Amino acid sequence: MRNWPLPELSITTPRLELRHPSLDDLDELADRAAEGVHEAGFMPFMVPWSDGEPAERARSVLQYQFRTWATFTPDDWSLELAVVHEGQVVGVQGMIGKDFPVTREVETGSWLGRRFQGRGIGTEMRRAVLHLAFAGLGAHHAVTTAFEDNHASLAVTKKLGYREDGISLHARKGEPVITRRFRMPREDWTESPDIKIHRLDRCLPLFGLPMSGVSEA
């Protein structure tokens, strides 16, 4: 699209492609949500969108993705990337920036279809989006949060070398729950030569950044 270049953006790793989702990708992503993303009786998300019936979960995913497209501005953006493994959409890796040209801080969040969990995909897709943040957008900090009982997310965060950044209290299903915050300054990030960013340059103004003028594959 001449006036909206985000669909051109992708990041590749040895096993994954993270890309701005097409309508077909969104349909697949909705299928993953309908299949389930966590066990019953557990809620890893602040907004309990995954508690509904399968068809409700599927619609919720589609509506949320469309909202992020409609509200994307340089001062307040949410980039949601479909994660593709062996030709199949398996989840989503998100990254949020508010006043990014000033703060140079991003926040990441993700979910993965339950039947694709436990394969290291969650770690690899987080590494990919951190590469986009630091190498592509020039971020100074990346932050993330997780409920204290979300052991899978906490394990990925610790593996990648974030620093503890405090706690917050939230209400979850009528009960207080602790969320743990983590921060990665740019100097703690380790660049991964096996991760590649494709066709970012035309997208940079959408993030409030100038185009680099570098030709990209």
Automatic annotation (TrEMBL):
This protein's UniProt keywords: Transferase
GO molecular function, one term: protein N-terminal-serine acetyltransferase activity
InterPro entries: Acyl_CoA_acyltransferase, GNAT_dom, Ribosomal_N-acetyltransferase
A UniProt-annotated Pfam family: Acetyltransf_3
Domain N-acetyltransferase: 16-187
Any one cellular-component term (Gene Ontology): cytoplasm
UniProt key word Lipoprotein: no
SUPFAM superfamilies per UniProt: Acyl-CoA N-acyltransferases (Nat) (SSF55729)
Domain of life the protein comes from: Bacteria
Name of the protein in question: N-acetyltransferase
Native organism: Nonomuraea terrae
Source taxonomy: Bacteria, Bacillati, Actinomycetota, Actinomycetes, Streptosporangiales
